[in-house]
# Entry
Amino acid sequence: MKNIGGKLIPITEDFDKAYLRWYLDPHPTNCVALPVCPEKNHLGFNNLAVFFTGCNLDCLFCQNIDHKYMLSNGEMKEGEFISIDELAKLANQRHVSCVCYFGGDPLPWSDFTLKASQKMNKRICWETNGLMNETIAKQMALVSLKSGGIIKIDWKAFTPSVYESLCGVNGEKAVDRLKNNIKLISSLDDRKEPPLLVVSTLVVPHYVDEVEVGNIARFLAQIDENIPYILLAFAPQHLMHDVPTTSKKQMQEVFNAATSSGLKRVFVENVWLLR
# Structure
């Protein structure tokens, strides 16, 4: 979308194409769900990582800020404008074992990703903020469930005012939507392994602490104590260069809060960032 005279106008009328960057990511991958990823030991194969431009949030701490600069005035500065069939052809190569949509966020391109996924004979995974409507959430879940993939939801904060301050959207509506979608996706998981749903949280100093993480973990534990919960270290990015990298001390505090909630599968990733 682009802003013309105060109105959001689609940058393209061809929804069978998308603005993106793709690359082959050798296993083991940098996947957020790495601790439970069924492909992590699939040596000799690759994940087709599909990085979309655009996002339905405007997070101050965005860790993938490149998505904002891929497209300007409808022209690609990096990446390409690619069709469903072209992406499906890339995915169906023999040395590709799974596909992961991320960005930015794949949600603004959900029509494209759902259509493309139907043409791929691979595991399909999403890394998303989870703020899709219920119909899209169910369609995504069924695609991943059938293909053996995972939906990885990044839950930014539990307190609506914190969520709103960090992400630029209505915090009450966002947190309610997250809770509903997590309940929905979890209810569809009759497979259990690999888990259909994985939830992650970026531990942002001064904002996302043991209170935020503990409340998210307790909510998840009430639904299913076996939902994997991934804690990620923050590094200064975008508009939050004045915030320090997550410390080992804080990560231990939030980890303790998460495990004391009743969740059985709590993991700490990108530990190399911890100071």
Notes: The chain is about 30% helix and 25% strand. Residues 131 and 177 are 6 Å apart (CA to CA). Residues 171-188 form the longest helix (18 residues).
